[in-house]
UniProtKB/TrEMBL annotation:
SUPFAM superfamilies (alphabetical): YceI-like
Protein source organism: Poritiphilus flavus
Protein name in the entry: Lipid/polyisoprenoid-binding YceI-like domain-containing protein
Superkingdom in the source lineage: Bacteria
Annotated ranges, domain Lipid/polyisoprenoid-binding YceI-like: 8-172
Length: 174
């Protein structure tokens, strides 16, 4: 990609979401997303192989549709949004289906693997060229210092360690 002309794509926020799912009491899942985030991709080819992805989210914008839970997630028990206001991801490699990159939450950076469905490129009714991606993966929240835990009376875990990442990104060709 060093010799190729690189194309930058900017996030279409109206058609994108950075979300997650985590088991609650091991019987159901809680879903949430970040209201404030940004992303970009730079590529040298139409198939986006070897593209460079960057995205970041304001952790204070977390929304699980429960204000008390959201405030707890913003606290030092989880994200500590006051001291670490953003989480970020930067890809190191992308082969068209698998993306490897560095995820930083709080003050911890770990290399993670994400699975990517590249849904193609289309021109919208306004003449903008757009590209769409569905991205998924799983992380252990405790690896990133999100260590709060509690046990139910029956001995079950209130919040699972594994968090599923559910990310839908649409980009506009710059």
């Amino acid at each position: 990609m060093e010799n190729a002309v690189k194309t930058k794509w900017n996030l279409d926020t109206a058609h994108s979401e950075i979300g997650f799912k985590v088991k609650h009491m091991m019987i159901s899942s809680v879903s949430g997303h970040f209201e404030e985030f940004n992303a970009s991709v730079t590529t040298g080819s139409d198939d986006f192989k070897d593209a460079e992805f960057d995205f970041a989210a304001a952790v204070g914008s977390i929304n699980t549709k429960n204000q008390e839970r959201d405030n707890h997630l913003r606290s030092n028990d989880f994200f500590n949004a006051q001291e670490y206001p953003h989480m970020a991801f930067r890809s190191n490699s992308f082969d068209g289906q698998k993306m490897i990159g560095d995820l930083t939450i709080r003050d911890v950076t770990k290399t993670i693997e994400l699975h990517v469905d590249f849904n193609g490129v289309a021109v919208d009714p306004y003449g903008q060229t757009k590209a769409g991606f569905e991205i998924g993966g799983s992380i252990n929240r405790k690896d990133f210092g999100l260590a709060w835990s509690a046990v139910t009376e029956a001995g079950g875990v209130v919040v699972a360690d594994q968090v599923k990442l559910v990310i839908d990104l649409q980009f506009i060709k710059a």
